[in-house]
Design a protein that fits this description.
It contains no helices and 11 strands. It has 121 residues and is mainly beta. The strands form 2 sheets. Strands 2, 4, 5, 6, 9, 10 and 11 form a 7-stranded mixed beta sheet that branches.
């Protein structure tokens, strides 16, 4: 059983800073990529940022320059810091990892339950 638990969401003022954390636990053999996605009401889930096990990061154009993703590989944790929040950043933010649960297993995609981020103007 694998669990991803996000924390740090809530109400943030426009122009403020958001810090999210996600901890992956359970039987995990290896994690390749960890990342954050978000889904606003009526919209599809979209990439926010990902970080590979080697430290390569990727950001959506909409958050570039405002967002930093980081990982603690030893703890299977991933963090997201976003500054200068805009009303358009309001969404449910989901943590994700791509990895294997066993040495012989396939690479799967695993998701957290999501954490709501509301931006007040």
């Amino acid at each position: 059983q694998v669990q991803l638990v996000e924390s740090g969401g809530g109400l943030v003022q426009a122009g403020g800073t958001l810090r999210l954390s996600c901890a992956a636990s359970g039987t995990i053999f290896s994690i390749d990529s960890m990342g954050w996605y978000r889904q606003a009401p009526g919209k599809q889930r979209e990439l926010v940022a990902t970080a590979s096990s080697g430290g390569i990061t990727n950001y959506a154009d909409s958050v570039k320059g405002r967002c930093t993703i980081s990982r603690d590989n030893a703890k299977n944790m991933v963090y997201l810091e976003m500054v200068t929040l805009e009303p358009e950043d309001a969404a449910v933010y989901y943590c994700n990892f791509l990895g294997k649960l066993t040495s012989q297993g396939y690479i799967g995609s695993y998701w957290g339950q999501g954490t709501q981020v509301t931006v007040s103007s």
